[in-house]
Specification:
The structure is a single chain. The strands form 9 sheets. This protein has an 8-stranded parallel beta sheet with strand order 10-9-8-6-4-3-2-11. Helix 7 packs parallel to helix 8. It has 11 helices and 37 strands. A hairpin with a 2-residue loop joins strand 31 and strand 32.
Length: 619
């Protein structure tokens, strides 16, 4: 959701270099009460032996701010490129380049990017110098995924003749597809291959206030645009893939994606399904994203979020450079990866001028839309300092370490107030841990299968630390033991050993009913926990749940236990950190029908809704 607020007019004084450096060290206040302390060592959280989704990339957008940065000194521009793309900075693996629509009618100049189309239908490739500067920089630094995204088609093809508030005219869909393909070909000739194209963005937002570019695309037109662009790309043998539909919210994604992607000959052109998370989605909404994408047979990406605040992850006006904002960003990444099982996370704008009355302190005048900030009055006062937020460092805890090709493994049983995500890649484990508690918290983390043999690095972001190298945790017998600093984000890197397939074993107990999962050829049910063999389940690296009567399998009338081998995902399951047990074929949850609690109550597959009858505890 792009913010339409105007440039602030709050007077600014020139900031010194010392002040700019101090911006990285914001002081946080407590938001979450610590759980009662205990002298006993906590029970170990468990890393799933089964791999979930593969991560494609982690990135941010180059929209808008580039049009201000074009006026900054070359050395500042070069520094920004290093801060975003180099290993000493965020080391982003995705960068979103805004293919502009010309900005016709847009009232705020930085949000009116130039297009390349001339009145005679030829091209002026010298346009959008600012945008091209940072796109080329991303390519030079080797950013893995370069993504072109469109907020509006050129105004000549919209119903209102503007780059905001109109629809793309149906008779110009092929013209628009040709334009996007021409832009793609041009950059390829410059040695910059766009890996993905998003042909429309937040298609249900009218943006008719014209504070920025935006184009309405109804669900009935989305498949037409996707097919037109896909056919044009195929005719040119372009290797650029299409992502869609960049819905504003998970709710719209879940309701609208099935409408257009199911149209004949459409799905073949779509590589990834994209959603934004401006609706502050619940676990149920995120789980539904996974179900929607599984039904379409496409991985999902989370491609835009910003502007949360006031102590939470919901939309709110606030500027917060502190660890509170950093932890909230990290929580969103964690939930998108662990519950929606998205394969990518992309922040909105990497830089912003919307810091409000003070770039060093939390205030209600600015917005949490950027990672790094600059003075909105730079043109008058000459201040080209950069101001860092903890969100910058929080995103780096993922982008610097969780690289394309890393495979996510779910974690269950983490302590209260702690969120743990783990990633396996090329003989290395990466573990990112959020501690929302106001006191230090002990964490024991047990690995199943490939075990950590040596802690190679520990990096922490906290109220007074940016990316601080800190003490490495102890590793013994496949278990990592660490003390998490209060209100912190810590990334641990471990060398691996072995190729084992250790399984998690035990009963699966319904959180609502307190009863154990059982299953046979007739179906699945709950029963009082007795320790009987039929109540014990083994969860292995293949993602199968095996009990006394065979594999737990999605059947036509619900889950059953069967000894029949299947080659699809019907007998593979994800154990989510929130207690959901999700079938990989359908994306639906094990659910005690009707929220019943009596012995013999039927267990079915149902859309994940976050209810207690869909939460299971392993014992």
């Amino acid at each position: 959701m792009h913010v339409t607020h105007p440039r602030t007019t709050t007077p600014r004084t020139r900031r010194t270099a010392l002040l700019a450096a101090a911006a990285a060290l914001a002081v946080a206040g407590p938001l979450v009460s610590a759980p009662p302390s205990s002298a006993a060592s906590p029970e170990a959280a468990e890393v799933s032996p089964h791999a979930a989704q593969t991560i494609d990339d982690i990135g941010a957008s180059g929209a808008w701010w580039v049009n201000d940065l074009r006026h900054f000194a070359p050395e500042v521009q070069a520094r920004v490129a290093r801060l975003l793309f180099s290993a000493e900075g965020l080391d982003l693996s995705a960068y979103r380049y805004n293919i502009g629509g010309g900005g016709a009618g847009v009232t705020y100049a930085p949000r009116a990017p130039e297009d390349f189309l001339k009145d005679d239908d030829t091209y002026d490739w010298s346009k959008d110098e600012a945008g091209r500067t940072f796109l080329y920089a991303a390519a030079k630094y080797g950013v893995e995924d370069l993504i072109g995204f469109v907020n509006s088609a050129p105004a000549r093809w919209t119903t209102n003749g503007k780059s905001c508030g109109g629809h793309l005219k149906a008779e110009n869909e092929r013209d628009f597809a040709k334009y996007v393909a021409d832009v793609t070909d041009h950059f390829a000739r410059q040695g910059v291959r766009l890996d993905y194209i998003s042909p429309f963005n937040e298609p249900t937002n009218s943006f008719d206030s014209c504070g920025q570019e935006g184009m309405l695309v109804d669900p009935s037109q989305r498949d037409d645009i996707v097919r037109a662009l896909g056919a044009e790309q195929r005719a040119r043998h372009q290797r650029t893939s299409i992502i869609a539909d960049e819905s504003t919210s998970t709710v719209k994604f879940n309701s609208e994606v099935p409408q257009w992607i199911s149209q004949p000959d459409t799905a073949q052109y779509v590589a990834r399904l994209a959603h934004h998370t401006y609706d502050n989605p619940s676990d149920a909404d995120r789980a539904k994203v996974h179900e929607t994408s599984r039904a379409a047979g496409k991985p999902s990406w989370s491609t835009e979020i910003c502007c949360f605040g006031k102590g939470g992850t919901g939309w709110a006006q606030e500027y917060d450079p502190t660890i509170d904002g950093g932890l909230n960003l990290s929580r969103i990444v964690y939930k998108d990866f662990a519950t929606a099982h998205d394969s990518a996370f992309q922040w909105w704008v990497a830089l912003s001028e919307m810091s409000g009355s003070d770039p060093l302190a939390r205030n209600d005048d600015g917005w949490n839309d950027g990672l790094i900030y600059y003075d909105p009055n730079y043109a008058k006062n000459g201040n080209q300092s950069l101001y860092f937020t903890k969100r910058y460092y929080a995103l780096g805890q993922y982008s610097k370490f969780v690289k394309p090709g890393a495979v996510a493994h779910n974690v269950t049983g983490a302590p209260d107030g702690v969120e743990v995500s783990t990633y396996d890649r090329n003989g290395t484990w990466v573990v990112v841990v959020n501690n929302h508690n106001t006191t230090d918290t002990a964490l024991n983390l047990h690995f199943n299968g490939k075990s950590p043999v040596r802690a190679a690095r520990a990096v922490r972001t906290s109220a007074d630390e940016s990316w601080a190298d800190v003490a490495k945790p102890a590793v013994r017998g496949g278990t990592v033991s660490a003390t998490l600093a209060a209100r912190s984000i810590t990334t641990y890197v471990f060398d691996q050993k072995g190729h084992g397939s250790s399984a998690l074993t035990g009963a699966l107990v319904g959180r609502q009913s307190g009863k154990c999962l059982t299953a046979d050829a007739a179906g699945a049910a709950i029963a009082s926990c007795t320790g009987a063999a039929g109540q014990s389940w083994s969860y292995d690296a293949r993602g199968t749940l095996t009990g006394a009567n065979g594999y737990l399998t999605e059947g036509s009338s619900g889950p059953t236990a069967t000894t029949v081998a299947t080659g699809d995902g019907s007998r593979r399951w994800l154990l989510n950190s929130n207690g959901q047990i999700v079938n990989e074929a359908s994306g639906r949850c094990l659910d005690v029908s009707g929220e019943a609690t009596a012995d013999g109550s039927r267990v079915i597959l149902y859309s994940c809704n976050g209810g207690g009858n869909e939460a299971w505890i392993r014992r």
